[in-house]
Amino acid sequence: MTTILFNPSPLANFQFNPTLDGVTYVCICTWNAAGPRYFFSIYDTFGNLIVSRPIIGSPDNYDINLLFGYFTKSTMVYRVSSSSFIITP
Q1: How many CA atoms lie within 13 A of 63 on its CB side?
Q2: Contacts with 21 (C-beta within 8 Å, 6 or more apart), sequence order
Q3: Tens of pLDDT along 18-77?
Q4: pTM for the complete prediction?
């Protein structure tokens, strides 16, 4: 399990490199002013978009897997209380 502290800024994208289903990807979190909310996009190493979704926060007692439907083994949860992504590769 990996924990990534999400330090958002509407002025700059937030980026990290998670390992999902055994492969390293690029995850970029961007602010959507029209929303207004943050979205995350996951790209492969060739720059191909794999998934793009809004960041939905999970409470402490429930996990909302942001990767559902795209990855079979890995999970990624955004924990509201700690403002962090919790990734299970």
Answers
A1: 11
A2: 71, 72, 73, 74, 89
A3: 999 999 999 999 998 888 899 999 999 999 999 999 999 999 999 999 999 999 999 999
A4: 0.90
Q: What is the dihedral of CA 56, 6, 4, 26, to 10 degrees?
A: 80
In 3-state terms, what secondary structure has residue 67? coil
Of the candidates 34, 35, 36, 40, the one whose C-alpha atom is nearest the C-alpha of residue 20 is: 40
Q: Taking Cα atoms as reference points, which of 60, 62, 64, 59 lies closest to residue 75?
A: 64
Cβ(64)–Cβ(79) under 8 Å? Answer: no
pLDDT of 10 higher than 80: no
